[in-house]
Amino acid sequence: MNDKDVVKPFNLPQLEKTPIQSSSESNLELLQDIPLTVTVEIGRAKMLVKDVLKLAVGAVVELDKLAGEPVDILVNGKIIAKGEVIAVNENYGIRITEILR
């Protein structure tokens, strides 16, 4: 073994302590402007390609949920809640009935 092969300890410089914000509210402020995709899924259907190609204006696609059954509310593709469809003026809305954990 020559002098180049000698293993020597490496000392790291002392790191400064940085105060961590204890308030979860101030931590949430950092996240508030991040865009999320919110989707409401009223049901699903499995169809063959030949049946999809036959779809036309006025066609009805039967979904796997019953009318009046709670709808799934997804955030970025993950179900986070259930709700019911409501009318708000001229638009549709969702009233949250259950938050999933």
Task: Describe the secondary structure blueprint for this structure.
Elements: H1 24-29, E1 38-41, H2 49-53, E2 71-75, E3 78-88, E4 91-99
Antiparallel strand pairs: 1-2, 2-3, 3-4
Give your account of this protein's structure.
The chain has a domain at 35-101: Roll (Surface presentation of antigens (SPOA)). It has a four-stranded antiparallel sheet, with no helix packed on it. Helices cover 11% and strands 29% of the residues. It is mainly beta.
Task: Provide a concise account of the structure shown.
The chain is 11% helix and 29% strand. The longest helix has 6 residues, at 24-29. The protein is built from two helices and four strands.
Q: Main sheet: which strands, in order across? A: 1-2-3-4
Strand content: 25-35%
Number of helices: 2
The strand count comes to 4
Order of helices and strands: HEHEEE
- The percent range for helix content is 10-25%
CATH fold type of the domain at 35-101: Surface presentation of antigens (SPOA)
The CATH superfamily of the domain at 35-101 is SpoA-like
CATH domain class of the domain at 35-101:
Mainly Beta
Level-2 CATH architecture of the domain at 35-101: Roll
Q: Tell me, what's the shape?
A: elongated
Largest sheet: 4 strands, antiparallel
Indicate the structural class.
Answer: mainly beta
Give the quaternary arrangement of the chains: single chain
User: Taking all residues together, what is the mean pLDDT?
Assistant: 87
